[in-house]
């Protein structure tokens, strides 16, 4: 049986039983192969923008006995060349890229993205930008996981389309940390990583001679957000 990293296993655990799973930025294809082997999805699309990762994904599928009747490999920039399933419960995953890149893919492929029941997104950077895009464009975040894998903090976001813009309801802290941050901070590894980030911001502020005023203000605002979220005195 295929063994996933802690991060990929957390993503897999968020995928419901579904008809089709589409993995954008599939890399080695471990995630769709795992889901197919465990009958979590019936069929899968494994897509990447580069030929190399896609070939490795195909080799891994063949190694575990997953045939072309269950998985399709697509060389595509985002959703550009994905033929979305029309019926059933279908899940779209985008991981291993920045939040702005994910948002750009959703913007370009909006009509296709709306055909999926759930989105599972793991932005390596720009989480605030992605949460803002989702809230302003009719998506509702229904679950988040924060975890540390190999000394790196990851955030996994599960969203559904509600059709209602909710941006006016949210604060900057929400966009930066999400609605599930209190639960996430009960994990000691996660809390330690957020404290490390906070101390890094403080260090930058203490050596501020060469920073432009705008950047200083951004860091100061961020420091206040971290203090509030971590429960430090402000």
What is the element layout, followed by pairings?
Layout: H1 6-13, E1 18-24, H2 30-37, E2 41-48, H3 51-63, E3 71-75, E4 90-97, H4 99-108, H5 110-113, E5 118-123, H6 127-136, E6 139-149, E7 152-161, H7 172-177, H8 181-184, H9 188-206, H10 213-230
Helix pairs in contact: 1-2, 4-6, 9-10
- The whole-angstrom Rg is 19 Å
Q: CATH architecture of the largest domain, please?
A: 3-Layer(aba) Sandwich
Number of separate helices: 10
CATH homologous superfamily grouping of the largest domain: Vaccinia Virus protein VP39
Main sheet attributes: strand count, strand direction, barrel closure: 7 strands, mixed
> How do the strands line up in the largest sheet?
3-2-1-4-5-7-6
* Total beta strands: 7
- Domain tally: 2
Named CATH topology of the largest domain: Rossmann fold
CATH domain class name of the largest domain = Alpha Beta
N to C succession of SSEs: HEHEHEEHHEHEEHHHH
User: In what range is the share of β-strand residues?
Assistant: 15-25%
Shape: globular
Distance between the termini: 49 Å
Structural class given helices, strands, pairing?
alpha/beta
Portion in helices: 40-55%
Assembly state (oligomeric)? single chain
Nearest-integer average pLDDT: 94
* Residue windows where pLDDT falls under 50 for at least 5 positions: none
């Amino acid at each position: 049986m295929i063994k996933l990293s802690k991060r990929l296993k957390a993503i897999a655990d968020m995928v419901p039983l579904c008809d089709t799973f589409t993995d954008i930025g599939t890399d080695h294809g471990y995630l769709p192969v795992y889901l197919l082997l465990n009958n979590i999805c019936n069929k899968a699309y494994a897509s990447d923008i580069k030929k190399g990762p896609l070939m490795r994904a195909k080799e891994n599928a063949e190694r575990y006995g997953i045939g072309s009747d269950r998985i399709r490999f697509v060389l595509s920039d985002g959703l550009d060349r994905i033929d979305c399933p029309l019926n059933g419960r279908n899940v779209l995953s985008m991981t291993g890229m920045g939040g702005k890149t994910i948002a750009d893919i959703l913007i370009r492929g909006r009509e296709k993205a709306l055909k999926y029941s759930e989105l599972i997104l793991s932005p390596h950077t720009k989480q605030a930008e992605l949460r803002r895009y989702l809230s302003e464009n009719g998506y509702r975040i229904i679950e988040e996981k924060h975890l540390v894998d190999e000394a790196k903090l990851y955030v996994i976001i599960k969203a559904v389309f509600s059709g209602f813009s909710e941006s006016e309801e949210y604060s900057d802290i929400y966009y930066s940390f999400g609605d599930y941050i209190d639960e996430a901070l009960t994990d000691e590894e996660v809390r330690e990583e957020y404290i490390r980030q906070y101390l890094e911001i403080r260090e930058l502020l203490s050596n501020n001679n060469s920073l432009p005023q705008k950047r200083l203000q951004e860091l100061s605002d961020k420091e206040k957000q971290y203090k509030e979220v971590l429960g430090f005195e402000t």
